[in-house]
Structure formats: structure tokens, C-alpha cells
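cron nightly-structures :: item 1 of 1
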Amino acid sequence: MRRHRSRPPTRTPPGLVFGTHPVLETLRASPEAVTTVWVVPGARAAARVAAVARGLRVTVEETDHAALDRLTSGAHHQGVAVCTRPFVYATFEQVLGSGAARLVALDGITDPHNLGAIIRSAEVLGAGGLILPLDRCAAVTASVIRASSGASAHLPIAQVVNLVRALGDAKQQGYWTIGLDPAGSSTFQELPSLDRALLVVGGEGAGLRPLVREACDFTVRIPGRGRVASLNAAVAAAIGLYALTERDLRT
């Protein structure tokens, strides 16, 4: 285990995660995915992060603020960063076979920050997994992991080639598919009691593609009272998951 002082690379590694909470969550959930931990001695989180990393037998290297500033392009790194191997996806069969009461599928979410925010909401609100189409959707990268505040380390995430087919397979496993749509025919309050539900969230701007919308058992709108036509996709996903969770608590 190295403790000598070193400098991180001058170019940003593709698997760079920084900030106290994302770094600690990544270490605790997936220590095998971490190749190096960088800490700035004296930084508020440095000793805590270093102790966790060393306890997990992960390499710890000391650096300075200027080096981490360059590595993170001046982002708020809090004096800690880790370099990780590529994200390991779950299989669709693993996500579907978990038996979770709530799953989430995304259709065309291309903004990494929105994807990270949805992952965080899904994990916090008790979803059992996330399904992403292989094309026309952001992948789980270091920026997504940071935006999720480490929640991606706890939520099984699968990629599928054909989302419509995946929704059909989910139905065969007892899931009701609920598409979020500003023009949806129902509200969450109007839905019947559902033992298993898969919430489908459309992309920024375009929303659900027609074939995906047709594959949903229900299309649900979130009533708005303001002048803006629709909600951000990540916000809509969080509201939808919360509404489904509240229904579970009341039934």
C-alpha cells in the first residue's frame, strides 16, 4: 500500500470520481472497481477517505490542491478523488429477476446530470433497478456517478438493445408499465393498486417515443399549475417514484 506523495495524471481519466460523498460511496460499494485514491493532506475529508481506502486495501496516494484542480478542471473536489475501472452493468435478467416492487426504465435520457439525478432518486425512493436502452441514452460514466452522489454503486443498472421488447418481458414477469407523459390519460391517484410497477421516463424535450408509449399499460401525467409546459425529466422521475411509493404506504 503506497502512501508516498505523488501527482495525479495531467489528463482527466475517464473513470474519475471526486467529492467526499461520491468517493466514499464508491469505495464502500465497489472497492474492487477503484484503482487509486488521491487525497490532499490536511483537507477536511482526506483522513476519513484515506482510512476507509486503506481498510479496503485500496492504493492511497497523496497529492496537492493544484494537481486535483487541474485534474478535475477546477471542480469542487474537496481534496479527494478516485480513479475507477469502467462501470459494471447488471444484466437485464438480474434486474427483472430481483422481484422488486418498483423498477425504472429510461427512454432517451442523454444528459449525464439528469441520468445521475434519476439514479439517485431511484435508489433513495426504493426502486430495485434501472433499465437503459443501449442507444440514444447516456451511459454510466464518472460524471454520472458523481451526479448520482454515489447511488450508482447501490442500484443495479442494466442496458438493453430493445426497450419495447424489454417492457414486454417485464409485463410477462408481472410488472405494469407506467409511462410518464404530459398528455397522459391518468394521474397517479387514478391508477389501480399495482403489486409491481415499472416507471418509464422519456427523454429531455421529446418525451417517450411513440412505440415506447404504446407499449405502456398506463400513461400518467403530473398535473401542473404553472405556466411552464413540462418538468425536467429527472424531476418528473422523482415525483413519479414518490407518488408510487406513497401509494404503497397507503394500501
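cron nightly-structures :: done
The radius of gyration is 20 Å.
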